[in-house]
Specification:
The protein contains 13 helices and 8 strands. With 286 residues, it is α/β, with parallel strands linked by helices. The protein has 3 domains: 112 residues, Obg-related GTPase Ych/YyaF, coiled-coil domain (DNA polymerase, domain 1, Orthogonal Bundle), CATH 1.10.150.300; 76 residues, P-loop containing nucleotide triphosphate hydrolases (Rossmann fold, 3-Layer(aba) Sandwich), CATH 3.40.50; 83 residues, Ubiquitin-like (UB roll) (Roll), CATH 3.10.20.30. It has a 5-stranded mixed beta sheet with strand order 5-4-8-6-7.
Length: 286
Protein backbone atom coordinates (compact mmCIF):
# COMPACT_ATOMS: atom_id res chain seq x y z
CA UNK A 1 0.00 0.00 0.00
CA UNK A 2 1.26 3.51 -0.85
CA UNK A 3 0.31 7.08 -0.02
CA UNK A 4 -2.96 7.88 -1.80
CA UNK A 5 -4.31 4.31 -1.59
CA UNK A 6 -7.65 5.59 -0.26
CA UNK A 7 -8.01 7.49 -3.54
CA UNK A 8 -7.02 4.49 -5.69
CA UNK A 9 -3.23 4.92 -5.87
CA UNK A 10 -1.16 1.73 -6.16
CA UNK A 11 -3.35 -1.30 -5.45
CA UNK A 12 -5.71 1.20 -3.85
CA UNK A 13 -9.36 0.27 -3.50
CA UNK A 14 -8.79 -3.34 -4.54
CA UNK A 15 -6.35 -3.86 -1.66
CA UNK A 16 -8.58 -2.03 0.82
CA UNK A 17 -11.57 -4.15 -0.18
CA UNK A 18 -9.54 -7.31 0.51
CA UNK A 19 -8.48 -6.28 4.01
CA UNK A 20 -12.05 -5.30 4.92
CA UNK A 21 -12.75 -9.04 5.07
CA UNK A 22 -9.97 -9.92 7.54
CA UNK A 23 -10.26 -10.17 11.33
CA UNK A 24 -6.91 -8.49 12.05
CA UNK A 25 -4.29 -6.52 10.13
CA UNK A 26 -0.64 -7.59 10.13
CA UNK A 27 1.43 -4.53 9.25
CA UNK A 28 4.97 -5.42 8.15
CA UNK A 29 7.38 -2.57 8.83
CA UNK A 30 10.92 -2.43 7.45
CA UNK A 31 13.54 -1.72 10.09
CA UNK A 32 16.65 -3.15 8.44
CA UNK A 33 19.12 -1.10 6.35
CA UNK A 34 20.24 -2.57 3.03
CA UNK A 35 21.09 -0.48 -0.02
CA UNK A 36 20.46 -3.47 -2.29
CA UNK A 37 16.81 -3.69 -1.25
CA UNK A 38 14.79 -0.78 -2.64
CA UNK A 39 12.22 1.00 -0.47
CA UNK A 40 9.15 2.50 -2.14
CA UNK A 41 10.02 5.92 -0.64
CA UNK A 42 13.79 5.58 -1.24
CA UNK A 43 14.41 5.99 2.51
CA UNK A 44 14.11 3.86 5.65
CA UNK A 45 11.69 5.67 7.95
CA UNK A 46 9.49 3.22 9.91
CA UNK A 47 7.58 6.01 11.70
CA UNK A 48 6.64 7.55 8.35
CA UNK A 49 5.72 4.15 6.87
CA UNK A 50 3.38 3.39 9.78
CA UNK A 51 1.84 6.86 9.64
CA UNK A 52 1.24 6.56 5.87
CA UNK A 53 -0.68 3.30 6.22
CA UNK A 54 -2.63 4.48 9.26
CA UNK A 55 -3.61 7.69 7.48
CA UNK A 56 -4.82 5.81 4.40
CA UNK A 57 -6.93 3.47 6.54
CA UNK A 58 -8.41 6.42 8.44
CA UNK A 59 -9.24 8.21 5.17
CA UNK A 60 -10.91 5.06 3.84
CA UNK A 61 -12.98 4.80 7.04
CA UNK A 62 -13.94 8.47 6.81
CA UNK A 63 -15.19 7.84 3.28
CA UNK A 64 -17.35 4.98 4.60
CA UNK A 65 -18.62 7.05 7.55
CA UNK A 66 -19.46 10.06 5.36
CA UNK A 67 -21.72 7.86 3.22
CA UNK A 68 -23.98 7.08 6.19
CA UNK A 69 -27.33 8.87 5.99
CA UNK A 70 -29.09 10.27 9.03
CA UNK A 71 -32.31 8.30 9.68
CA UNK A 72 -35.45 10.41 9.56
CA UNK A 73 -39.13 9.98 10.36
CA UNK A 74 -41.03 7.73 12.72
CA UNK A 75 -40.65 4.73 10.41
CA UNK A 76 -36.90 4.46 11.08
CA UNK A 77 -36.07 1.96 13.88
CA UNK A 78 -34.61 3.38 17.09
CA UNK A 79 -31.49 1.25 16.52
CA UNK A 80 -30.79 3.26 13.36
CA UNK A 81 -30.82 6.52 15.33
CA UNK A 82 -28.53 5.04 17.98
CA UNK A 83 -26.13 3.71 15.31
CA UNK A 84 -26.00 7.11 13.61
CA UNK A 85 -25.02 8.75 16.92
CA UNK A 86 -22.10 6.31 17.17
CA UNK A 87 -21.09 7.12 13.57
CA UNK A 88 -21.01 10.84 14.41
CA UNK A 89 -18.97 10.11 17.52
CA UNK A 90 -16.27 8.14 15.72
CA UNK A 91 -16.16 10.62 12.82
CA UNK A 92 -15.11 13.39 15.19
CA UNK A 93 -12.10 11.38 16.36
CA UNK A 94 -11.28 9.99 12.91
CA UNK A 95 -11.05 13.63 11.74
CA UNK A 96 -8.43 14.08 14.47
CA UNK A 97 -6.42 11.12 13.15
CA UNK A 98 -7.50 8.66 15.87
CA UNK A 99 -8.27 5.14 14.58
CA UNK A 100 -11.50 3.57 15.81
CA UNK A 101 -9.67 0.85 17.78
CA UNK A 102 -8.12 3.58 19.98
CA UNK A 103 -11.44 5.30 20.66
CA UNK A 104 -13.45 4.72 23.85
CA UNK A 105 -16.41 2.65 22.70
CA UNK A 106 -18.61 0.30 24.68
CA UNK A 107 -19.81 -3.12 23.54
CA UNK A 108 -23.14 -1.81 22.19
CA UNK A 109 -21.39 0.88 20.14
CA UNK A 110 -18.96 -1.66 18.67
CA UNK A 111 -21.88 -3.91 17.69
CA UNK A 112 -23.62 -0.95 16.02
CA UNK A 113 -20.51 -0.30 13.91
CA UNK A 114 -20.01 -3.91 12.81
CA UNK A 115 -22.06 -3.63 9.55
CA UNK A 116 -19.72 -0.83 8.37
CA UNK A 117 -16.72 -3.20 8.34
CA UNK A 118 -14.36 -0.37 9.26
CA UNK A 119 -10.63 -0.83 8.72
CA UNK A 120 -9.28 1.00 11.77
CA UNK A 121 -11.52 -0.93 14.15
CA UNK A 122 -9.53 -4.11 13.45
CA UNK A 123 -6.68 -5.09 15.78
CA UNK A 124 -3.22 -4.45 14.31
CA UNK A 125 -0.09 -6.53 14.81
CA UNK A 126 3.12 -4.81 13.75
CA UNK A 127 5.79 -7.16 12.37
CA UNK A 128 9.15 -5.41 12.21
CA UNK A 129 11.45 -6.88 9.58
CA UNK A 130 14.97 -6.60 11.01
CA UNK A 131 18.49 -7.64 10.03
CA UNK A 132 20.24 -10.60 11.67
CA UNK A 133 22.39 -8.13 13.60
CA UNK A 134 19.28 -6.34 14.91
CA UNK A 135 17.81 -9.73 15.82
CA UNK A 136 20.86 -10.51 17.93
CA UNK A 137 20.78 -7.09 19.63
CA UNK A 138 17.28 -7.71 21.05
CA UNK A 139 17.25 -5.08 23.80
CA UNK A 140 18.44 -2.32 21.50
CA UNK A 141 15.97 -3.33 18.77
CA UNK A 142 13.04 -3.51 21.21
CA UNK A 143 13.94 -0.09 22.60
CA UNK A 144 13.96 1.35 19.07
CA UNK A 145 10.56 -0.23 18.30
CA UNK A 146 9.08 1.12 21.55
CA UNK A 147 10.24 4.59 20.50
CA UNK A 148 8.68 4.17 17.05
CA UNK A 149 5.31 2.94 18.32
CA UNK A 150 5.11 5.24 21.32
CA UNK A 151 2.22 3.30 22.91
CA UNK A 152 2.29 0.70 25.68
CA UNK A 153 -0.53 -1.58 24.50
CA UNK A 154 0.53 -2.07 20.88
CA UNK A 155 0.93 -5.66 19.68
CA UNK A 156 4.19 -6.36 17.82
CA UNK A 157 6.96 -8.84 17.11
CA UNK A 158 10.24 -8.50 15.22
CA UNK A 159 11.81 -11.07 12.95
CA UNK A 160 14.32 -11.38 10.12
CA UNK A 161 12.37 -12.33 6.97
CA UNK A 162 15.60 -13.31 5.19
CA UNK A 163 16.42 -15.78 7.95
CA UNK A 164 12.83 -17.07 8.09
CA UNK A 165 13.01 -17.88 4.37
CA UNK A 166 16.25 -19.80 4.89
CA UNK A 167 15.17 -21.97 7.83
CA UNK A 168 12.10 -23.28 6.00
CA UNK A 169 14.43 -25.74 4.24
CA UNK A 170 15.84 -27.00 7.57
CA UNK A 171 14.50 -29.96 9.52
CA UNK A 172 13.18 -29.37 13.08
CA UNK A 173 16.48 -30.08 14.81
CA UNK A 174 18.45 -27.88 12.42
CA UNK A 175 15.93 -25.07 12.93
CA UNK A 176 16.27 -25.40 16.69
CA UNK A 177 20.07 -25.20 16.53
CA UNK A 178 20.01 -22.24 14.15
CA UNK A 179 17.49 -20.28 16.22
CA UNK A 180 19.53 -20.92 19.37
CA UNK A 181 22.22 -18.58 17.97
CA UNK A 182 19.67 -15.76 18.31
CA UNK A 183 18.35 -16.97 21.69
CA UNK A 184 15.04 -17.88 20.06
CA UNK A 185 12.91 -20.92 20.92
CA UNK A 186 10.71 -20.80 17.82
CA UNK A 187 10.45 -19.27 14.36
CA UNK A 188 9.01 -15.85 13.63
CA UNK A 189 6.03 -17.48 11.92
CA UNK A 190 5.12 -19.42 15.07
CA UNK A 191 5.51 -16.29 17.18
CA UNK A 192 3.26 -14.38 14.77
CA UNK A 193 0.57 -17.09 14.93
CA UNK A 194 0.59 -16.92 18.73
CA UNK A 195 0.44 -13.13 18.66
CA UNK A 196 -2.51 -13.28 16.22
CA UNK A 197 -4.37 -15.70 18.51
CA UNK A 198 -3.71 -13.32 21.40
CA UNK A 199 -4.90 -10.26 19.45
CA UNK A 200 -8.10 -12.01 18.34
CA UNK A 201 -8.82 -13.60 21.72
CA UNK A 202 -8.51 -17.15 20.40
CA UNK A 203 -7.34 -20.43 21.92
CA UNK A 204 -7.09 -24.01 20.63
CA UNK A 205 -8.15 -27.35 22.03
CA UNK A 206 -7.29 -30.79 20.65
CA UNK A 207 -9.20 -33.99 20.00
CA UNK A 208 -7.18 -37.21 19.85
CA UNK A 209 -9.01 -40.23 18.46
CA UNK A 210 -7.93 -43.49 16.89
CA UNK A 211 -8.30 -42.15 13.33
CA UNK A 212 -6.87 -38.62 13.74
CA UNK A 213 -5.66 -35.94 16.10
CA UNK A 214 -6.84 -32.40 15.37
CA UNK A 215 -6.71 -28.87 16.76
CA UNK A 216 -9.85 -26.70 16.91
CA UNK A 217 -9.90 -22.92 17.26
CA UNK A 218 -12.39 -21.24 19.59
CA UNK A 219 -12.88 -17.90 21.35
CA UNK A 220 -11.21 -17.46 24.74
CA UNK A 221 -13.80 -17.81 27.49
CA UNK A 222 -16.03 -20.29 25.63
CA UNK A 223 -17.73 -23.02 27.63
CA UNK A 224 -17.28 -26.72 26.89
CA UNK A 225 -20.63 -27.10 25.01
CA UNK A 226 -19.70 -24.17 22.71
CA UNK A 227 -16.34 -25.81 22.02
CA UNK A 228 -18.12 -29.08 21.20
CA UNK A 229 -20.30 -27.15 18.75
CA UNK A 230 -17.26 -26.29 16.63
CA UNK A 231 -16.92 -29.99 15.79
CA UNK A 232 -20.61 -30.38 14.95
CA UNK A 233 -23.54 -28.06 15.73
CA UNK A 234 -25.53 -30.96 17.23
CA UNK A 235 -22.77 -31.56 19.78
CA UNK A 236 -23.55 -28.30 21.58
CA UNK A 237 -27.24 -29.16 21.96
CA UNK A 238 -26.61 -32.77 22.99
CA UNK A 239 -23.57 -32.12 25.21
CA UNK A 240 -23.43 -34.27 28.35
CA UNK A 241 -19.88 -33.87 29.69
CA UNK A 242 -16.23 -33.61 28.62
CA UNK A 243 -13.08 -35.47 29.65
CA UNK A 244 -10.22 -32.97 29.69
CA UNK A 245 -6.47 -33.16 30.21
CA UNK A 246 -3.62 -30.67 29.50
CA UNK A 247 -1.69 -31.55 26.34
CA UNK A 248 1.69 -32.23 27.97
CA UNK A 249 0.17 -34.53 30.61
CA UNK A 250 -1.64 -36.40 27.84
CA UNK A 251 1.62 -36.89 25.92
CA UNK A 252 3.57 -37.89 29.04
CA UNK A 253 0.90 -40.45 29.99
CA UNK A 254 0.83 -41.91 26.48
CA UNK A 255 -2.85 -41.47 25.66
CA UNK A 256 -6.33 -41.66 27.19
CA UNK A 257 -6.09 -45.14 28.74
CA UNK A 258 -2.94 -44.47 30.79
CA UNK A 259 -4.06 -40.92 31.62
CA UNK A 260 -7.32 -42.26 33.09
CA UNK A 261 -5.47 -44.97 35.02
CA UNK A 262 -3.25 -42.29 36.57
CA UNK A 263 -6.24 -40.11 37.48
CA UNK A 264 -5.08 -37.24 35.26
CA UNK A 265 -8.35 -36.75 33.38
CA UNK A 266 -10.81 -34.14 34.65
CA UNK A 267 -14.53 -34.76 34.04
CA UNK A 268 -16.28 -31.45 33.38
CA UNK A 269 -19.83 -30.23 32.83
CA UNK A 270 -21.61 -27.51 30.87
CA UNK A 271 -20.16 -24.63 32.93
CA UNK A 272 -16.50 -25.51 32.32
CA UNK A 273 -14.47 -22.71 30.71
CA UNK A 274 -12.08 -24.09 28.11
CA UNK A 275 -8.34 -23.45 28.43
CA UNK A 276 -5.71 -23.26 25.72
CA UNK A 277 -3.96 -26.47 24.73
CA UNK A 278 -6.30 -28.98 26.38
CA UNK A 279 -7.01 -32.41 24.91
CA UNK A 280 -10.75 -33.11 25.04
CA UNK A 281 -13.11 -36.04 24.59
CA UNK A 282 -16.74 -34.92 24.48
CA UNK A 283 -19.59 -37.15 25.63
CA UNK A 284 -22.64 -36.46 23.47
CA UNK A 285 -26.20 -37.71 23.92
CA UNK A 286 -28.23 -39.50 21.27
Amino acid sequence: MVRGASKGEGLGNKFLSHIREVEAIVHVVRLFEDGNVVHVSDKINPEDDIKTIETELILADLETVNKQKEPKGSSAPKEAFAAYEVVKKIKTELDQGIPVRQQSLNEEELIALKPLNLLTIKPVIYVFNVSEEQLQNKDETKKKIDQILGLDDVSFIFLCAKMEAEIVAFNKQEQKEYLKQFELDESGLNRLIKKAYEALGLISFLTAGIIEARAWTIKKGWLAPQAAGTIHTDFEKKFIKADIIPYQKFIDAGGWVKAREQGLVQITGKDYIMKDGEVVEFKIGA
